[in-house]
Amino acid sequence: MKTILPTLPTQFGIPIVIVQHIGARSDGEWFRILEKLCNIKIKEAEEKEEIKSGMVYVAPPNYHLLIEKDKTFSFSIGERVNFSRPSIDVLFETASEVYEDKLIGVILTGANSDGAQGLKKLRKRRFGGCSRSFNR
Prior knowledge:
This protein is of the alpha/beta class. It has helices at residues 29-37, 88-99, 116-125, and strands at 16-18, 41-44, 55-58, 64-67, 73-76.
């Protein structure tokens, strides 16, 4: 993220939503530091907040972040998915229902297999797609 987000212009034309596997008691300092490096605004997503272009939204700790049909966020304290809450799978699955083929999913790194099922759903929705893994 530290490499990609600072390259985006202030008027970036699409919203970005980040799920970061962090502790439930995180104070969000990691994304405040990231925000200082970026041109684009970064904030923690809020319940019922309208999703807007040119913003980077971060899932709050210990809540699944869902995207509703009216393109707002909602939170869930549901069971952990692949040992994770927030879960990338939950975000990708709900986002694919709303944005359909106008959605790009990116997993930079992850814990366990969180994100794999959601990415499969995105690929299926888009009638194709690709995924890449780079090992160092």
